[in-house]
Amino acid sequence: MKKILLTNILALICSVGAVAQTDVTDFFLKNAGFDTNFDYTAKQSTAVAQEILPIDGWTAGFTIDYTITGVYEFGFKGTFNNGTIPAKGFNGEAGGGLALSTGWNQSFPYYQTVTLPAGTYTVTAPTYNGFTATAGTSLLAWIPEKGTQVKSTVSSYPSNKWVEDKIEFTLTETTTGKIQIGYIATGNGGSSNSANIVIDYVQIIGTNMSMTVEELEAQLKQEALDNLKALIDKANELPKKPCSTAALDELTKAVESASAINDTNTKEEIAEASAAIQEALDAVNASMKEHQVVADAIDKAINAYDETKAGAEDLKTAIDAASTVWTNGDATSEEMKAAVETLDKATFAFNLANSTQGAGTAPSVTKTNHYVPTGATEALMRATFAGSNLIEKGVCWSTEHEPTVLDNRTTKAFTLNGTIIHVKGLEPATVYYLRPYAMNKTYQVAYGEEVKIVTHPAGTCIGTWDEGAPNDAANKRCREAIQQTIEYFNEWTGIKGFTLSGHYGAQTPTADCSYGGWMRIGPNTGNQAIGTVIHETGHGVGVGTSDRWWDSNVHSWKWFGREANEMYSFLEGKAADPYNSEFCMVGDNTHGWGSSATYDWFVNGADKDKHTELQYLGGCCLLYGLFIDGLCPTSAYSNGLPGYTYNFDETKKYYLMCKGEGYGFGEGLLYQRGATGASWNKFLTSGEPIDDSAAWYLEFNPKTGYYFFKNAESGKYLTHAAGNTSMGVKTIASGKSPSATEQFQLMPDRTNVTLGAGKESITTHGYWMTWYDGSNKAMGAKSYFNVSGYGQTQQAAFDYSDKATSQMWIIISEDELPAYQEIITGIKPITLNESSANGSNVVDIVGMDGVKKQQTQKGFNIIKYSDGSTKKIFVK
Predict the structure, then answer these.
(1) Do the Cβ atoms of 424 and 376 come closer than 8 Å?
(2) Beta strands of 314-465 (E only): which ranges?
């Protein structure tokens, strides 16, 4: 808080003229005392570490964003970057000061532009250093537009003391320039090597000025009146556009009140009137801008409108509705935004409804990749687009089937061996349907195939940094790299309960991390970056550190897990095959990487960090693939992550066949036996019809990542109830959900299997149906007992090896089942509505049990055709 000089008081009282010393601060500076609008008060005890706050009245002459600026009340009990605030000001008074702290030779200048009459001036800025380091150079200065600059000579700040920083200069004529304050952190290194200063106030004392106080008062008052008149004129000259009625009323009131102001009013009254008009003008201009956005949308719609075209009535209705909002002075901001959104969508729908071929080749989506990496709120989709004059290539999505561009859509994309569309704005743990699309400038749209996805639950990982680096810049780099890594992990892996604990390692050459997340980052700035932190966090969740990583079943210089290689194939746009190609996920005892990869997705070295979003999220996606394959991110995930690994249709039936030779492979299906049993039977070779006791509906819980299997005949759920050694089925009461004993983690197995030979063969793979009930378990098949007529199932200790085929189950959809039957029996089934050689269609199929069928079954079948003919066949 500034001290008024006695001479100044006498000058003000006695109206002494040009020879007096006069405090003219209030004539020229705003917020010169920093005594109001505190960012931190004396009652607070916050340890402020990093923030750049705006300073009322002062313009910042810098762009750096570290470490601290703010206004603190004297007596503040906390610290700012470990510096302290004094209990009182320079002269022992209350109030506050401007606190500044930075490092690395950075400058923190603040200034105000003033116009001073001729005279001699002393500018004082008492400064306190509340830190142990003393290095720093004052930036207090007079910087005229023309003439010589005058700068402070203060080049250091003693600890816990005040420095009366001041400059003096003489002007021979009225001059415009900057009054500047601040400092340069001249310590060698970060902010810990430089002073943390507090500027109490800025005071301007004038001597021998060419203007008296009265003349200054009169001049400033006249300038204020001129400014007020200009504001009134500006308000009266506003164009009469649609605007908020309330805002216009406030402006009218402000103008009426200001028009009564004259030179008999005080400076405060003039300033109050000016502020009222300015505030009202700002509100009116903001409202006009909002209304103009509506007007622009209306113009766009009118230009598209044609009453003779399809959808004209709907577009006209939307135009009329938006016009009503546009001219409504009482419309809210929310109503105007909604009107624009509705009208834009209506205009887009009208253009779509009246699309034309246009010149060139029609748009098309020639290929849709059905493998879609998903996060909690994001997804990636590959497609191939073609066509002339395309204005959009993207993905549309909805929670309903067959989404269109009128639903949600995006064109955000990465380019890497093709196009990867980046979908954002999804909800976690939700089922969506996605379709790629291409649209040309005449609004012709082509869609690719629909793909169902299920987003992950958001992860709950957290990250900490010990702030142990020797300077602010290093701490900031490490802290932000950890925060960004955690954001990527929570988005793309869904891991819960993992903590990344970051520490500074002065002797650490690069960085390291142990399983569980204890990480060190060394002094090399190249490693204080997100790529290195993502790499090290990979070790924290099992890469090179978990027992599963070293398991020879999945890792022998190549990663054989199916999901990680599928993910790698997607990212690179090229099929990966660890069994027949070097292009696959590879690694050693410590690290993983992709062979011949475009990116080093796991950033094995700071030089491999390309600092791109795709590299970072791609690396996290690959980690997720490893977790699905069984790598355990934390001890809480004893079998990797459960997730949506088998894409199914809720309306279709599915069949389960064990992959083990002698355990049902090529002959048997899992079925409900009796009221509570679950066994397997030779439905595929016995000649018996496959009834719904062997059919299952699949369900999936997006929040947990587990599947459920509901028998199509009984409605009972497949269960691994505790205390039983075999599998069974269980009734779930209406309104209740299946419990943990009915849930299964579907982990893809690693090896393919083929039924049949040549062109008529089917190559597929299976899934382990696993769970944890104190130990890892899996559903297994036992040998077929001819006497009993079925094969038993068992709750077996989970066997992660490739030889455990009796625990692997092939899932067959009802659409795929005929092809399996044909290969196994050698007889092609006849299906309902199929065309015969003479052109008639199959209209009815009746099996040996007299029940109508969708296709021929083993045994006696009667086939009826649309031409009235009938055929009887027997299928062995």
Answers:
(1) no
(2) 364-368, 378-386, 390-398, 408-410, 413-415, 419-424, 431-440, 445-447, 451-454, 462-465
Residue 7 pLDDT > 60: no
Nearest to 48 by CA among 160, 198, 175: 198
Residue 105: its pLDDT value, please?
85
Among 118, 122, 109, which residue's Cα sits nearest to residue 176? 118
Determine if the peptide bond prior to 67 is cis (ω within 30°).
yes
User: What count of Cα atoms within 13 Å lies in the side-chain half-sphere of residue 404?
Assistant: 9
**CA 566/CA 574 separation, integer angstroms:** 10
Q: Count CB neighbours of 783 within 10 A.
A: 12
Burial of 611 from C-beta contacts in 10 A (0-12 / 13-18 / 19+): exposed
What is the SS3 assignment for 24? coil
User: Considering only CA atoms, which of 681, 680, 715 is closest in space to residue 697?
Assistant: 715
The per-residue pLDDT for range 257-304, each reduced to its tens digit, is 999 998 888 888 998 999 999 999 999 999 999 999 999 999 999 999
**Contact by Cβ (8 Å): 635, 548:** no
Close Cβ partners of 593 (under 8 Å, ≥ 6 residues apart): 585, 586, 587, 600, 601, 602, 604
Q: What is the CA 575 to chain-centroid distance, rounded?
A: 28
pLDDT tens digits for range 204-231: 999 999 988 888 888 888 888 999 999 9
Rounded to 10°, the helix 267-304/245-259 angle is 150
Helix H or strand E encompassing 319: helix 312-327
- Cα→Cα distances 127→154, 155, 451, Å: 10, 12, 66
Model confidence pTM above 0.85: no
Residue 53 sits at the vertex; the CA angle it makes with 49 and 55, to the nearest 5 degrees, is 140
Least confident of 112-121, 184-193, 246-255, 276-285: 184-193
- How many whole angstroms separate alpha carbon 162 and alpha carbon 697? 79
Residue 36 predicted with pLDDT over 70: yes
Residue among 122, 128, 113 at smallest CA distance from 200: 128
Tell me which H or E stretch contains 491.
helix 472-492
pLDDT at residue 10 is higher than 60: no
Average pLDDT over residues 625-654: 96
CB 475 within 8 A of CB 192: no
E strand or H helix at 699: strand 696-701
Task: Determine the 3-state secondary structure of 865 from DSSP.
Answer: strand
Closest among 477, 456, 455, 451 to 465, alpha carbons compared = 477
| CB of 165 closer than 8 Å to CB of 214 | no
pLDDT tens string 52-72 = 999 999 999 988 877 899 999
The answer to whether the CB of 614 falls within 8 A of the CB of 420 is yes
The confidence band for 370, taking pLDDT boundaries of 50, 70 and 90, is very high
- Find, among 391, 392, 381, the residue nearest to 414 by Cα: 381
* Phi, psi angles (nearest 5°) of residue 227: -65, -40
| pLDDT, mean of residues 854-860 | 75
Backbone phi and psi for residue 708, each to the nearest 5 degrees, phi listed first: -130, 150
Q: Give the C-alpha separation, 434 to 398, whole Å.
A: 7
Tell me how many helices (H) and strands (E) the chain has: 13, 48
Cα radius of gyration rounded to whole Å, the chain: 38
Say yes or no to pLDDT of 16 above 50. Answer: no
